[in-house]
Amino acid sequence: MFNFFRKKQAERPEIFFHTDIHCHLVPGVDDGQSTPEGGAELIAREKEWGIERIIVTPHVTQDTFENTPDTLVPAFGRLRDAVRERGVDIDLKLSAEYRIDAFFTSQLDKGLVTPMPNNYLLVENSFIQESWNLDKILFDLKMRGYKPILAHPERYAYYFTNKNRYHQLHDAGNLFQVNLLSLAGNYGKEVKQMAEYLIDNDMVDFIGTDMHNEKHCATIESYLMSKDYRHHAAKLRDRIFNDTAL
Ligand SMILES: [Fe+2]
């Protein structure tokens, strides 16, 4: 009987870091959650895994999600209220995931970007091709005092045949954030293999969920109980900066 209960307890998903730096749970501003209650539900689930702090990162993308503090701050307030109403005690912060495009550079010039604590800034490439002038933009960000974190490098298929580009970007002082969903196999075998390549080459600085919805949440929960997860966690545990940098 005793062993039975021990086994049950071990089957709860548990995570090896306590700060999620990438998710789409702010209601109604991107392709993530559409209601505050939906966002609060997924935050409650993250808390059950052992997450204590979440930096929410809605998309800011030219044409599709041209968010500014005017759209994000009130929506974030609605999320925070719903989380409080649900009685979930968790540290929530607002930042964003910035696509490197002309909208981003214009927001930057106007002083309208919302960095993470300690001036970390989550940026992403387009999925079709590398962003125009990427090296110069990343360099300029660093000159302005930001610390750019490239979101999910393992998902940019145009780098798969040019792995050297990962090394160039990382050697230039750009930090890499890999998605738990990539390691869980959510985007296919090639993306998972690329995430593992980045782990094995010591290029993973942060982990994020990149969770948008219930399906993502369920995928992560099954992954957290897998052998794969234990294998990845053992390699990443002392390597990532989620809980120490920001
Ligand atoms: Fe994202």
What is the element string, with H for helices and E for strands? HEHEEHEEHEHEHEHHEHH
- Determine Rg (CA atoms, Å): 18 Å
Structural class computed from helices and strand pairing: alpha/beta
Largest sheet: 6 strands, parallel
Total DSSP helices: 10
End-to-end C-alpha gap: 43 Å
* CATH topology (level 3) name: TIM Barrel
CATH homologous superfamily grouping: Metal-dependent hydrolases
Shape label: globular
Low-confidence stretches: none
In which order are the strands of the major sheet placed? 3-5-6-7-8-9
Strand portion = 5-15%
Mean pLDDT: 95
Oligomer: single chain
Number of strands: 9
Q: How many structural units, i.e. domains? A: 1
CATH structural architecture: Alpha-Beta Barrel
- Look at the structure and give the CATH class: Alpha Beta
Heteromolecules bound: fe (ii) ion
Can you give the helix content as a percent range?
A: 40-55%
